[in-house]
Amino acid sequence: MRLRLAADFPHAGFEPGPLARASMSGCGYARLLPVISSLAWVTTAQARGHDVDEPIALRALARAGLAVEVVDWDDPAADWGRFDRVVLRSAWDYPDRMDEFLQWLDRVAALTDLVNPPATVRWSLDKRYLAELADAGIPITPTRFLAPGEAVEFPAGRFVVKPAVGAGGRDASCYAPNQLEQARSHIARLHAAGRVVLVQPFLPSIAELGEWPMVFLGGRFSHSACKRVSLPQAGLVEGLFAAEENSAHAASGEQVAVAQAVVDHLSARLGTPAYARVDLVLGDDGRACVLEVELAEPSLFLPFAEPAGIDQLVWVLSR
Ligand SMILES: Nc1ncnc2c1ncn2[C@@H]1O[C@H](COP(=O)(O)OP(=O)(O)O)[C@@H](O)[C@H]1O
Ligand SMILES: [Mg+2]
After folding, report:
1. By mean pLDDT, which of 9-23, 183-197, 229-243 is the weakest?
2. pLDDT per residue over 122-155, tens digit each?
3. Does 238 score more than 90 pLDDT?
4. Ligand 1 pocket: which of 206, 245, 246 to mutate (most atoms <8 Å of CB)?
5. DSSP string covering 253-287, please?
6. Residue 128 is assigned to a structural domain of this protein
7. Residues 89, 95, 100, 106: is their CA dihedral positive or negative?
8. Does the residue 112 lie in any domain?
9. Mean pLDDT across the chain
């Protein structure tokens, strides 16, 4: 870490924390603020060229004077300790290499500042956090959690089967009421691999309207988007992620309140995450509910962020 003049920061719209505000207030000249100078942007070989956030963020971080390198998380030659901060971004193949990835988190966090930190990342890797959020009074997508050995029961109508630990729609499928045998063998396959399974009623609004990723930077709501993912009917997603179609969305007050409740809960438990994404959907009762919380390597939908949101990202990653 080195010290740079606050005036070196050319960006408007920062949200300095209380300490930085105190150090800047009342002075007629620039004061010294600690900011980092080198940052690793962590990806994986298969994701290169696919992350639309990356060019936007890298340009902004470079403008702020940071030396940023894009590094594959599994690059054996990477010297993580020489970066002031390592920022987990498009390491999208980790669900297939979970043990290796968890070891990587701890190894890197012992060498330098890993964003988000391992405990925060681990919390979000297992969708059983939905039960914790429900206990905290936050509306979630109705969910049954089935550990290996537990009896399987299905909701009436169409339903979705997905692993508690999984991403990008991999190993997730939707079933009609006449496909129970297929659903049972899907669950049996996940259970045989020791995986906990989530069963949820199929929410038609997800197919009709999509879902709304709510992006938080430094614990504060920044922007949202509308995302449509095509989940296969009784089939499995091939490749790293299910196809997505994204568009702009102005979040409602209700959506911001639900997503903020998630981030506040999490911040109280594990510290404020540098970035967080809360994916909201419309429940059958017409109200916003949580489908998923992403703290490991969420796409941040930066093409839909205002310039102030990009500044906020730079601030959060560089202070
Ligand atoms: N209960 C549900 N009803 C309808 N579609 C769902 C439901 N759960 C998941 N999906 C679809 O499956 C996709 C992947 O599920 P999600 O819970 O976001 O897990 P992940 O993104 O970690 O794989 C979602 O983007 C959505 O399109
Ligand atoms: Mg998702």
Report:
1. 9-23
2. 999 999 999 999 999 999 999 999 999 999 999 9
3. no
4. 206
5. HHHHHHHHHHHHHHHHHH---SEEEEEEEE-TTSS
6. no
7. positive
8. yes
9. 88
Q: Which ligand 1 atom is nearest residue 229's CA?
A: 27
Residue 30 in this model has a pLDDT that exceeds 60: no
CA distance 7 to 128: 45
Report phi then psi at 176, rounded to 5: -90, 160
Instruction: Give how far the C-alpha of residue 186 lies from the chain's centroid of Cα atoms, to the nearest Å.
Output: 26
State the distance from the centre of ligand 2 to the C-alpha of 230, rounded, in angstroms: 11
What CATH number has the domain bearing residue 98?
3.40.50
* Domains identified in the chain, total number: 1
Q: Which two tokens stand for residue 217?
A: 């930077």
Instruction: Please check whether residue 151 lies inside any domain of the structure.
Output: no
224, 255 contact by CB (below 8 A)? yes
75 inside domain: yes
% of the chain with per-residue pLDDT over 90:
81
pLDDT digits (tens, 9 = 90+) for 71-80: 999 999 999 9
Q: Report the nearest-CA residue for atom 13 of ligand 1.
A: 169
List the domain range (segments joined by +) for residue 26: 6-120+301-318
**Overall residue count recorded for the chain in this entry:** 319
Strands 197-201 and 220-229: unpaired
pTM beyond cutoff 0.70: yes
- Indicate the top mutation candidate among 128, 143, 162, 289 to test ligand 1's pocket, ranked by most ligand atoms within 8 A of CB: 162
Q: Is 1 a residue whose pLDDT tops 70? A: no
CA angle 113, 114, 119 (to 5 degrees): 120
